[in-house]
Design a protein that fits this description.
The radius of gyration is 16 Å and the shape is globular. A hairpin with a 4-residue loop joins strand 2 (49-54) and strand 3. The chain has helices spanning 20-30, 37-46, 88-102, 117-125, and strands at residues 11-14, 49-54, 59-68, 71-79, 107-112, 129-140, 143-153. It is an alpha+beta fold.
Amino acid sequence: MAAVVAPNVPRIRIMRPEDLPQVVRIEHVAYEFPWSPGIFRDCLKAGHACWVMSWPGEICGYGILSAAAGEAHILNLCVDPQYQGMGHGRRMLRRLVDLARWHGAHRVFLEVRPSNTAAHQLYLDNDFAEIGRRPRYYPAAQGREDAIVMMHKLVPDQRD
């Protein structure tokens, strides 16, 4: 009998209601202005694609995607700060983009804070392009912060 060694990579699976305490804990550790538990519950109830990443055996990140009418929107993508810089955000982003493709989306949108330079660079490195700004979109310590709106094309533009 031969033993098979599991790769040392995170496991990504569908988020379950019992995951919410860990997800909310990560949200509060990672963000100054976190989502409430109710927002996560609403995302699950609405049927959004809600996924968690576990490594090693505990939730270390999550992603939430809304998809409809040929478009998808990444609503939240977060990795626990103690697990950042290990490629987990890239792995979850790719899963969400694959899910958008599976849902028949032609484009994937997201917003990111200009002050979140690591996330902004992650999206640029994964073929997201800046397409605009949403003024005063996010709460901030000194009032409000703009959002950079980004888009990734899954299907090339059709020319007639």
